[in-house]
Automatic annotation (TrEMBL):
The keyword Lipid biosynthesis does not apply. Keywords: Membrane, Transmembrane, Transmembrane helix. It is found in: Membrane. It comes from the Bacteria. It comes from Phenylobacterium koreense. InterPro entries: TMEM86B-like. It is a multi-pass membrane protein. The lineage of its organism: Bacteria, Pseudomonadati, Pseudomonadota, Alphaproteobacteria, Caulobacterales. It holds the Pfam family YhhN. This is Membrane protein YhhN.
Length: 217
């Protein structure tokens, strides 16, 4: 289906190129402006891709989710953790609505997904060295983990959207770990970006492909 939408395909390819190249080059001596622009480009192209594919409300909702993620990613660099987290949290709330609107008809054994919520919140609360951060981190993680649980019980592919949502959770837990016990870990920045970018990519393509399939039925 991508081949019938060359503009969308090119935008997605450009997103992957930007995301992967930033992952490789992020530890270079980049100027702050270049670093923010390069980092933001990978995720900022995902809402454009989703928008080019959107044909109904669900298509525009995933576009909004990706746009709020891109905004949050840039705000983390320019305005700090709290402001960036608020943009991400808004995206998680929109995503929860999208996933609940598209619940799987047969949940089967997927009820385990909601065990992620207390586990992630507890881990996030314990991680920051600055204990004043802990309540805010836990509150944000509540929205984040609910988003992931709802993704897992949605009709969107587990191997794409579900896995991507779990990668997003792990990426943010590593951010909190960097404010705590793993502050000096050299590898953690690469892990955070890789999990986050590829998680968003999987979420977006999983939803978009499912909505495309619906139009072909």
């Amino acid at each position: 289906m991508e081949r019938k939408s060359p503009a969308a395909w090119l935008v997605l390819a450009a997103s992957v190129a930007a995301g992967v190249s930033y992952w490789i080059a992020r530890d270079l001596a980049l100027t702050p402006t270049l670093a923010v622009a390069w980092k933001g480009a990978g995720v900022a192209l995902l809402p454009l891709y989703a928008g080019l594919k959107a044909r109904n409300l669900d298509g525009w909702l995933i576009c909004l989710v990706m746009a709020l993620g891109a905004l949050g990613d840039v705000l983390l660099e320019t305005s700090g953790l709290t402001v960036g987290a608020l943009a991400f949290l808004a995206g998680h709330l929109v995503a929860i609505g999208l996933y609940l609107k598209n619940r799987a008809h047969r949940l089967g054994g997927r009820a385990w997904a909601f065990l992620i919520v207390p586990a992630a919140v507890a881990i996030a609360y314990l991680l920051p060295t600055d204990r004043a951060m802990a309540p805010g981190v836990a509150l944000y993680t509540l929205g984040l983990s609910l988003m992931a649980a709802c993704a897992l019980i949605s009709r969107f592919p587990l191997a794409l959207t579900g896995l991507g949502a779990l990668m997003f959770v792990l990426s943010d837990l590593l951010i909190f770990a960097r404010a705590g016990p793993w502050a000096q870990a050299a590898w953690i920045g690469l892990a955070i970006w890789g999990l986050y970018y590829f998680g968003q990519l999987l979420i977006c393509t999983g939803v978009v492909r499912t909505l495309q399939r619906d139009r072909r039925l």
